[in-house]
Amino acid sequence: MSQGLLKSVRQLLPTLVTAVASLAMWAVWLGWDQQRDVHPDGSSTGPYETWQVIGLVLTLLIPVYWAASRRHITGAVVGTAVGLTVASFYDWSDDASGLYGVGVTLVMLGTVAVTTAVSFLIAAAGDRFTRRPA
What is the C-alpha separation between 10 and 71, in angstroms, rounded? Predict the structure, then answer.
């Protein structure tokens, strides 16, 4: 394998790892729950419970931390955003109202915003702990 190709693979690895991890974690936490809960007053909620979404967010911190602590902030952000956007699109695209596009867009924008902030905090914390006193 040439050095250039090896370098390209190393640069893409954080993006691929976070994208695959995001897809897998969506499937584990949210992919199996497709039923809405109907309440006695006729209103409905769901299909996801709060604990499922919190679990997804907390477990996503692992691959984001892995990438951001290695200074691959772009890989952490892009990979996580792509993974969750593709997963939500696949999961919601059978919605007859067509509003799933709005939800998918909000997932993408929210993921980019939050993952960017978290990645910079992780990278900054890593810098703080790796600096040597003068």
Answer: 13
Rounded to whole angstroms, the Cα distance separating 75 from 72 reads: 5
Q: Does residue 13 have a pLDDT over 80? A: yes
Run of H or E including 37: strand 37-38
Average pLDDT over residues 44-55: 88
Q: DSSP string spanning 47-94?
A: SS-HHHHHHHHHHHHHHHHHHHTTT-HHHHHHHHHHHHHHHHHHHHTT
Nearest to 61 by CA among 121, 130, 127, 124: 121
Measured distance CA(15)–CA(74) in Å, rounded: 8
pLDDT, tens digit, for every residue of 70-119? 999 999 999 999 999 999 999 998 888 888 999 999 999 999 999 999 99
Pick the closest to residue 67 from 14, 24, 121, 23 (CA basis): 14
Please tell me the pTM assigned to this model. 0.85
